[in-house]
Specification:
Radius of gyration: 17 Å
CATH superfamily: Outer membrane protein
Number of domains: 1
CATH architecture: Beta Barrel
Order of helices and strands: EEEHEEE
Number of helices: 1
Distance between the termini: 31 Å
Number of strands: 6
Oligomer: single chain
Largest sheet: 6 strands, antiparallel
Strand content: over 45%
C-alpha cells in the first residue's frame, strides 16, 4: 500500500491470519491506522454467530510523518524518526447476527530516536450491520 498525504507518506505491506467460525461473513477486524490496510466490512450471519482469532504484521517505510517531522513549510520542532516501522496486531472478534465485537492489541516498534519504549495500544470495536 502506498499512502501519499500531508500527514503521512509511506509505503507498507502486511499479512493477516484468521482462524474461526463463519469467516465468510467478515473480511477482517477493524484496525488502528496507520497499519493493516483493508476494509472492515462484515455482513449479518444467518447461522446466528461467528468468531475468529487473528494475528498479523505490517512493515512500513515512512517518508513523512508530520507528528515527528514538524511543519513542512517553516522551521519547527522535530525529532529524528526511524524510517522503518513494524506493527504486530492480534486479537479476537465475535459476531452475533448483525453485531460484531472485536478486541485487538497492537505492538509497534520505536518510531523515533530517543523513544524509551515500543508503543502498545488496545482497541475495542462494536459494529452494527444495518440492512
Amino acid at each position: 500500500m502506498l499512502v501519499l498525504g500531508n500527514v503521512y507518506t509511506y509505503a507498507g505491506a502486511g499479512l493477516m491470519f484468521r482462524m474461526g467460525q463463519n469467516l465468510k461473513n467478515d473480511i477482517g477486524p477493524p484496525n488502528i491506522s496507520p497499519g493493516f490496510p483493508r476494509a472492515s466490512f462484515f455482513s449479518a450471519t444467518k447461522e446466528g454467530k461467528g468468531w475468529y482469532i487473528f494475528a498479523g504484521t505490517e512493515g512500513r517505510g515512512v517518508f513523512r510523518n508530520i507528528f515527528l517531522d514538524g511543519n513542512a513549510f517553516q522551521e519547527s520542532h522535530r525529532v529524528e524518526k526511524t524510517p522503518w516501522i513494524l506493527d504486530f496486531q492480534y486479537g479476537i472478534a465475535y459476531q452475533h447476527k448483525n453485531v460484531r465485537v472485536a478486541f485487538s492489541n497492537v505492538l509497534r516498534s520505536k518510531e523515533f530516536e530517543g523513544q524509551e519504549d515500543k508503543a502498545a495500544f488496545d482497541a475495542m470495536n462494536i459494529s452494527f450491520f444495518l440492512n
